[in-house]
Amino acid sequence: MPLLKPSHLRLAQISSRRSARAALSTHAAPFPVIPTCPDPTCPCSSIPAGLDIDRKQQLSGSMSPYTQHLIVSTGRSDWTSRIEDEKDTAVWGRFTADVKASLGRGGEFHDPYNNVLVSMSSFTPLADLQRNGETPPAGVQASKIVDALVFPAFRHFKELGIEPQSNTLRKFIKSSLLPEEGKIHPIYKDRSESERKAKTRDSSLATSLDSSFIETPTILICSHGQRDSRCGILGPLLHAEFTRYINHRKTSDRVSGPMLKATAGAFDPRSSLSPDSTSSADSSINVNVGMISHVGGHKWAGNVIIYIPPTFECLPSGPHPLAGSGIWYGRVEPRHVEGIVEQTLLRGKVIQDHFRGGITKGGDILRL
């Protein structure tokens, strides 16, 4: 067989890559997909004019891969640009700074192949609710404990202590944020057993932590205005629209399926607001709707993440195609809220026009 000249070899390599990309593009998506978001059937808010939103770049693949998403309850919808700057004024700021220090370069649990995404949320800390309904003044630490969510593990942690002597933070990271045995990066396969063990999760440590399984869908919207004004404008607008639509859809004869109830205060991990009730009027499915800090991609605001629990069922009934997954959307406007709730949340269909990426409960990254 004659050898190819360098110029011909280069053309062959380019052709091969193009063929590979074409082959990949013809593969069926690993989940149901619809190309665009259906038009709303009811009036909804409009977005302010003049927002500099990137509407040209393809969204699919724009989500940075991660292994776990840690979300800390703060009761606020905006934060300083760097959350760590609040370490001396808020207990959740201290908690976040300590987590990032432990996972970051030079930290005890540093692993460049275990990317843990850390966000603040508008969900009200339980400690604040226990203060007779009074929220402490800004800059005053109500307690030395925080509440946190971890996805796609779908765990709700309550009263995580930050005092060094409690060792709670270390137990939390070691038991919930490190890779499970067998999922540690292959680069460590030749390391000593002790080194591998140091980078691997120890689930037994979680028995001393107060946590529960999250049964309810969770919708998160970036509202980090001090990081970028686009998210600061669209985040609260989308939060209000999701809450309004979810709470009013049951009164419409244009939609089918279960009644939903949006929870925007303290996070509620229960799937039903009245699990012991026999009345259909009291058996609305709970949907937690919250605002979160920076997740990347301001230019594609509004940015929305939907975490669908493994036990959630699809309409009309049966297994949900996206159960246990997190789906990331960009360029979301109020007019897309109905379509996201009806098509993605309730029917398990990914909207291609807005899809940035996703993650499964096992940590696999979803792409189109």
Automatic annotation (TrEMBL):
PANTHER family hit by this protein: ACTIN PATCHES DISTAL PROTEIN 1, ALTERED INHERITANCE OF MITOCHONDRIA PROTEIN 32
Family affiliation: Belongs to the AIM32 family.
Protein name stated in the entry: Altered inheritance of mitochondria protein 32
Origin organism lineage: Eukaryota, Fungi, Dikarya, Ascomycota, Pezizomycotina
Membrane-spanning intervals of the chain: none
Pfam family, one: Suc_Fer-like
Coiled coil: none
